[in-house]
Write a structure and sequence with these properties.
With 150 residues, the chain is of the alpha+beta class. It has a single domain, classed as Nuclear Transport Factor 2, Chain: A (Roll). It has three helices and six strands. The protein has helices spanning 2-41, 45-51, 67-76; strands spanning 52-59, 64-66, 79-94, 97-110, 113-128, 131-141. It has a six-stranded mixed β-sheet with strand order 2-1-6-5-4-3. A hairpin with a 2-residue loop joins strand 3 and strand 4.
């Protein structure tokens, strides 16, 4: 009986510890996601380069690019992410992987024209050593009434 209680206590301690870490990771990744939108608006490619995995993919309405191409687009202002108004976010963390869904209104300059578009953006992050790196970012055009299921 004492052995069963010890095993149960150990299981509960491990579960609480794992939940606390997962919660901390979720906070960290959500903050990175929020910061990313500001870095994109500021064209801060140095911060973005640190965040984006070298092999990351970026899916836009007009194409798919890899990290170097996305950074060049941001740096040159070919697409200027002027402002991303985040209306709703959800996150799932599983081990060293985190997926973030943001429902946003994006105001951007695209080839000299201002565009205001509603998106749900899916971001995939992976914990690599101590840092979280973005592996993928996909824009999905949605209605402004779209809701993210949590």
């Amino acid at each position: 009986m004492k052995t069963n209680i010890k095993i149960l206590a150990l299981f509960l301690i491990c579960s609480i510890s794992a939940f606390a870490q997962s919660s901390k990771d979720a906070e960290t990744v959500l903050q990175l996601s929020k910061d990313k939108w500001q870095w994109m608006a500021d064209k801060n490619v140095d911060k973005l380069k640190d965040l984006f995995d070298a092999k990351a993919k970026f899916v836009h309405m007009s194409g798919t690019w890899k990290t170097d191409e996305e950074l060049e687009i941001i740096k040159t202002g070919s697409i200027w992410y002027k402002e991303a108004k985040v209306h709703d976010s959800a996150i799932e963390v599983s081990g060293k992987t985190a997926i973030v869904w943001n429902r946003i209104t994006l105001i951007a300059m695209v080839r000299g024209n201002e565009a205001k578009t509603e998106f749900t953006v899916t971001e995939v992050y992976q914990k690599q050593k101590k840092d979280w790196k973005m592996l993928a970012l996909t824009f999905s055009s949605v209605r402004d009434t779209h809701q993210i299921k949590k």
